[in-house]
Amino acid sequence: MKRIFYLAVISSIMWNCQSPGEGETSTQNADSNLFIMKFNDVHTFSQPEVARITHLEWDANVDFENKMIDAVAKYNIWTSDEASEIFFDTKNDMEILDVLADDAPAKFSIGDEVEHLGRPLRVEVLPSTKTISITYKTNPKAAALQWLSPQQTANKTAPFLFTQSQAILCRSWIPIQDGPGIRFTYNAKVRVPTGLMALMSAKNPQTKSKDGVYSFTMTQPVPAYLMALTVGDVDYKQLGAHTGIYAESSMMEKSANEFAEMEDMLIAAEKLYGKYQWEVYDMIILPPSFPFGGMENPRLTFATPTILAGDRSLTALVAHELAHSWSGNLVTNATWDDFWLNEGFTVYFERRIMESLYGADYAEMLAQLGYQDLQETVEGFLEKNQARDTHLKLDLKDRDPDDGMSDIAYEKGYFMLRLLEKAVGREQWDAFLKDYFQTNAFKVMTTEAFVDHLKTNLLGDMKYDELKLDAWIYGPGLPDNCPTPESNKFTIVEKQISDWQNGTALTELETNNWSSHEWLHFVRYLPVGLTYIQMKQLDETFGFTKSGNSEILAAWFQHTIANNYKPADQVMSDFLVNVGRRKFLTPTYKALLAAGKKDQAIAIYNIARPNYHSVATQTMDELLGVK
After folding, report:
1. Which pTM does this prediction carry?
2. Do 245 and 281 meet the contact criterion of CB atoms below 8 Å apart?
3. Mean pLDDT across the chain, nearest whole number?
4. Annotated catalytic, 24?
5. Is domain 526-624 given the CATH code 3.30.360.10 in the classification?
């Protein structure tokens, strides 16, 4: 494969593309200065310094019977004076039926398969070419698409479809320039079976169409990984002036209650770092096979039902996805090697939102749980001689960018930003961040450009070196100046466990009014090698096996599996079969393997695998040695 080095021109020249039929241009960066950034994206075939997309008109039919989307993707393109070809990314044997350049037949070819990347679609163009139209069909095995039977949904009455484009899976359902450094606007028309509602990462309907035809607009430029589509029997409920929830009818009451504070989160976020620039913030609760906690698709966050705990205890995920509306969606990592710029900033912002709403103690508990996850992740990578994967700035050449989606980007990134806040003071740090988001809105950012921005606008070279920031960004593990979160609430939790170990009855422990975070710390902090009697006493007293909180339940499984506590086996098996969230699947299957229960793990996986999205099966196949 030809490796691509290009200049991303982030300005009105790149982003202000006219939307056909509207007669208007996107104005987000109309007045911005020309900003040229050099970077190498090894995860796309596109060569945007030669020719790149600026706007998409997508006309699609969703075929549940054949598990296929047939569509026409028509692009407005920019071409250089030397342009003779434009490249698109495709994956999973997408069938290209026809290609037009300025509405005339165009010569095109499809290149050889490249591991992780798929196949390049090459189209001949002239410097004067303005549009490219691609007629195509997706493959039933398209990695981004999960087609669910009615039985796999909450209502169990209608089929369901959702996409997961991040990191480079958009190319499996749209032939596109699939790099985060390439942004474009889009319109879409989507036809689905009557009785179902189609939604996208765009301006969405709030009621079902009688004829199954839906139209969408996204006037803000977005990268391909934020392209999203879902189709199902869902309803809508408005929660606030700018917020609402989509869910299946059987899930609506519970979902609306769980996320009743979304508008408050949005207001808190705007007070911190400036105006929300996407008009509305809605969320859809997907079936449990969704592989992540949430996905920050603009205007429509995709969320897993595993955050429906009944007590709003897991809504930090909502704050996280909302924060992405600034860090990630507004200012985007230029390549997947710069992934920490999306996630580290988002975790920091998420915890500031939670602190604003629920207090510093609450946010500090979240930070301490994150620190525990980070330490475990770092230790795991170092034990496997994968020190490079503990760097913030990654090197994912010849690898799946999904490999970079670990706690390093999220939590190590968070703690570096927390270090910066401590070094300059919150007031100065907040002013810097607010300006960072406003100055770079609808642009992309490399790690190196951020370092320059940081030195120029906040620290200077000397302070940068004093804080050992190169060690944070380009070095392994955790530097010795990593901030250590301290929660007095967790100290109290640990004392209760100590008291129990020293003879205090479980019923006499001081656990009244504990939050779910304190309970999660309690379960995580339990000693190893508990006896069956101890496990039974814990379960009968606190009801861990019957917990409605997925975080606590998944942590409890670590002990039930290791200590061979069989009363939890069926619940654990049902959980693995019905929940597709990779965050829970990976440690639970790992625990089974570590306990010498590979046969049990394989038996469960054989039943569960059809319920998982390809993002999850790819990880589990490798973990369990299944082909």
Report:
1. 0.93
2. no
3. 93
4. no
5. no
